Please model this.
Amino acid sequence: MKYQYGITPLEYDKMSRLQGNVCAICREPNSRNRFLGVDHCHATKKVRGLLCDTCNTTLGKFHDDPERFLRAAEYLERNVGGPAMRPMLAGKIASVDEVCFPVYCTPKLDGIRCLILGGEAVSRKLKAIPNRHVADALFLGVEGCDGELMVPGATNFGETSSAIMSRDGTPVFEYHVFDLFTAPGGYLERMEVLKAIPLLRESLRLVLPVEIKDATELDAYEKRCLGEGHEGVMLRSPDGPYKHGRSTVREGYLLKLKRFEDDEAVVIGYEELQRNENAAEKDALGHTKRSKAKAGMVGGGTLGKLIVRRADGVEFAIGSGLDDATRTRAWAERDSLAGRLVKYKHLPHGAQEAPRHPIFLGFRHADDV
Model:
């Protein structure tokens, strides 16, 4: 094997474990009747992975030509109606009255969506995860994994996005896997397949669901998730398939329950943080107060607010949620802020035009939108 393919038996065993001991294409398990052979590029002799004999032969008949496979996929989708690969997205529920119990719930994680597709870590737009350290660590991971990339200890979304979506750097990260889109059947069936696959990478975490039988249990679970710092709750029907696209509330394949809603806006300006140096006075109740006279307001040398424009043209300011480090860094880069995409959360109910209580979450990379 070493002479023919440049791979030792030890390297073969390691590669097999990383693939979950299944064929990289058809996902059939390695067995006496379906032995996984080493697949290599005929032009470069570089080892690409392990395939069963049927899939390996098919690659050879297609002469390793990606264009032929793309045309074949287009043909099948056009004539058989197979779904194009897209990550499953959650439908929004405004009330627990819309939930069909029982459901299986997990915390809503505030990270970067990541799928393992073709042995590569890709974003929700199916573009390669930019950070080379993260991409290399997840290369040839278990095909079909769907999850969220998180940075342990990150206090906000901006820290996670900056670490994962920047090309350089070696961030400490965790890949929280919550589904397997290559597995057949309903959600619980897919989870059983996922639990049986050895996730050998130190960075991988399996997100296991909790069965919720009624609204009372859901309320308690939501409070627990919020208390742990999560955004909300994700709900799945036990027999729901993996839908390539957004689930509807009626389908219930994947739903999210959040009191705040997330949105994006484009930066069009900024305001400096003002420090009030007007003289302190006592009011009629003995409370200290300061006038907001313009003459006594002094620039603080750091960012105060971001002026942003939503997709519908509504303009507003975001000041809450910006920590000192973000304010300092943004102020230093203020000349290049215009045009950057901002992720924020807000209360959806009661808003007339501008969002109620917008809170800055982070600058967002275009590939994660």
